[in-house]
Amino acid sequence: MEFTFLGTSAGTPTRARNVTALALAPSGPRPWYLVDCGEGTQHQLLRAHYSVMQLRAIFITHIHGDHTFGLPGLLTSASMLGRTEPLDLIAPVQTHRFVTSTLENSDSSLSYPVNFIDSEAADFRWQDEHFAVTNVALSHRVPCRAYVFTEQNLERQLRQDRLTEDGIEPGPSWGELQKGRDVTLADGRLLRSDDYTEIPRVARRLIVAGDNDDPTLLAEASAGSHALIHEATYTQDVSERVGPWPQHSSAEQVARFAQQAQLPNLVLTHFSSRYQSGPGGAPHINQLAAEALRHYRGELFLARDFDSYRLEKDLTLRCLTTDNP
Amino acid sequence: MEFTFLGTSAGTPTRARNVTALALAPSGPRPWYLVDCGEGTQHQLLRAHYSVMQLRAIFITHIHGDHTFGLPGLLTSASMLGRTEPLDLIAPVQTHRFVTSTLENSDSSLSYPVNFIDSEAADFRWQDEHFAVTNVALSHRVPCRAYVFTEQNLERQLRQDRLTEDGIEPGPSWGELQKGRDVTLADGRLLRSDDYTEIPRVARRLIVAGDNDDPTLLAEASAGSHALIHEATYTQDVSERVGPWPQHSSAEQVARFAQQAQLPNLVLTHFSSRYQSGPGGAPHINQLAAEALRHYRGELFLARDFDSYRLEKDLTLRCLTTDNP
Question: Where in the sequence is the active site (chains A, B) (predicted)?
């Protein structure tokens, strides 16, 4: 399970950070999934190893422009490349309207179908062969969701002891059982895959949250999750100075929650453009890390554009970008 | 009169070229004017010396996404920066609708008024103290315009011979006359600025054209213009292979027209992403220059992102980017 940040800035882009987008892949670049699509996401993709031709679904957390304004360009560029595969667009109804009216008002049409799926539906659930996806309502100025990605179809291991015990000879039926399929033998016996195989590890689960001023809303989803990607727009003192209106979280707030929820891995993102990485008068981005580390003892990461991560089968999270401290 | 290319690619961005946008300034970065606003224009501005705070007006040539999808992000970012100055948006009505519905569907509002002005109006004319702007209908898949920018309020020179002849003593009245203002003397005489000053040079005039498959539509506007910025999406052979549908010009077509119209300066832009500048298998961008040079004997330039040009008072056009051959 790998993901790459295509944008990590809140509200407006900076020279080093684009507005929000995240590429997620079960393994390798095809298929892959996009969570949020700020302006310039298609430009970021030109520098990443994900192609819009292999994109299976887009999940939008909420309607704000820094999470959605890249959609029309990305969709029409895929069309100019000749995409024919259908694409799922999981988003609030207003984002569907934004896309539809933008295509209309720009004389654009798409060479492939877009399936609009309402992310705010009460019974929202999406899945394919790689991921089962649910979502959780967050607290922001507009309805906003966190998406919970749970790995599907984990590789099974044959329980050879039991197969031998029941006198089932090695052969094609073993292969079928390992693929999770039930088998009827020539003698009429029905073998259930679940009886003769086991899944030797836990399904990996990742939460990708949208804008949110109350991380505790993720308490239930966090139980059994192995990594949380959450906004930390400000440090606590700036957050208090700015006041409650923006409805964002501070690094401290998220860190306290992740500690309490015993989340083993936390990646902070969606930083206010006031924080910079270089030398100079602007507050340094590391202030956010320092603040979070005072409240969280798990593995902490600060997202940067184009950093890639892998959530390993042993549930450790590894940043694949070598220069990330 | 200076301009900087913020995007020079047709349809989709490449790693080296963004989709169309051009910054134009009478002198220095304030105020300035934007012609077209493809996705990522606000990102390009982070690397140029123009700020959205000093932007006076946006001119959109036509409704296609590669010329308009950057509008919502640029407008909302200016709002987040606290802009209060009104902004003129000169564009087709559908682009006004695109902007309005996008703001609505993304819970966005602007901290400043946008004046929507219909670029397709029969009597279109816009002006401020720096530029008088008219437009010309082009030929494309949708209504499309070229904008003609004519310098306004040229500096006047006093005709000292005539002032002396008429016994007008040096003093504040000379200054007023030079500013173009008529003056009434203490003795009751009315002095008309036009009688005692002259404008010692021609007003500079620049045409910035949108997508167009018939450059000859610019014949009338080209008389008295000093530079033309025009698309050259393909070479002639590719243009013939692609067929008439895209309704773009070849380098040859534009060059032939510019030669016939005796335009002294021609800048080609809006290149198909098939043309590249680096080594490799892709057709080289210089093919477009080579083709144009076979038919045009004026000053020819191929636009690149971030290249800046100055149309001097002596009507020469100079690329200010030192590494441009």
Answer: 66 (proton acceptor)
